[in-house]
Design goal:
Layout: E1 2-5, H1 10-21, E2 29-32, E3 50-53, H2 61-69, E4 74-77, H3 87-93, E5 96-98, H4 105-121, H5 123-131, E6 149-153, H6 157-168, E7 172-176, E8 190-192, H7 195-201, E9 204-207, H8 221-225, E10 231-235, H9 244-253, E11 256-261, H10 283-289, E12 294-296, H11 305-323
Parallel strand pairs: 1-2, 1-3, 3-4, 4-5, 6-7, 6-9, 7-8, 9-10, 10-11, 11-12
Helix pairs in contact: 1-11, 2-3, 4-6
Amino acid sequence: MKVAVFSTKPYDRQFLETANDAVQDCCHQLSFFEARLDVATAPLAAGFPVVCVFVNDNLDAPTLKILAEQGTRLIALRCTGFNNVDRQAVRDLGLKVVRVTAYSPYSVAEFALGMILSLNRKIHRAYNRTREGNFALDGLLGFDLHGRTIGVIGTGKIGLIFANLMTAFGCQVLGYDPYPNPEFTKNPLCRYVPLAELFAQADVISLHCPLSPETRYIINAQAIEKMKPGVILINTSRGALIDTGAVIVGLKSQTIGALGLDVYEQEAELFFEDLSNEIIQDDTFERLLTFPNVLVTGHQAFFTEDALGDIAATTIANITNFATNQPLTNQVS
């Protein structure tokens, strides 16, 4: 099966080729493109029955129409989220879409914890200070996580692991999820509460929910008004869960005491590229970087060898199932 793989970096090629080589009797022909998939680059996939894409590829109706007219029949997402896919266009065009329903959930949960520790204890600032010979402690004061209240929005695989990590620190964990996970409340330090109560009581809030119409801007001006002053806010899920303008206002008012972002709503034009010699034109993003209590990373929470191995193996298995007319167990409905 010929597969056009978009938005590829050297590590994508390494892990996908390894997973592909492990498939017996059905090794696929992988063609790698560095370009991000959109309406302008879709012609590169001409003649490929399978197109493999990542989180910032644009699968809107015009792009999907070009792919379908060129002979593409399967879209293989090498990610969990599918908010970048026009699902109605997929149905209208008779395409199939598969995704990676799960990969190492520890990768993202542990990264979120790392962001909390860095922001609370100012580790990222201390690192830069000591490199300049500044060993003063003023401005680096943090607090013990032990005994604090942690809010987790979304208690699926990643949110559950994150909650258990926080209880190991001696924290109380408040959860919010429209679809409660019975495993969450098995931990005596975890309980579900209404969202407003979570906002009011949590010293730290971490987002682990998918992006949907219901969760878009779940962190907005009204939500921030309900939060405890000085709250630490972490987002390792999807950028549009947060209204960035409202968060900037919250930082200026000091309602938000620290902000950790591994995702950003307009990240498609920024993340996964080296722009160190460029002038970034996104004024909102640049404003975020001016705050000393903001830590931004470039969508790397998933980036462990364990997670990349899982993603590649599931992606190749999805394509193999399609090529051999097996059930598509990871199909996006």
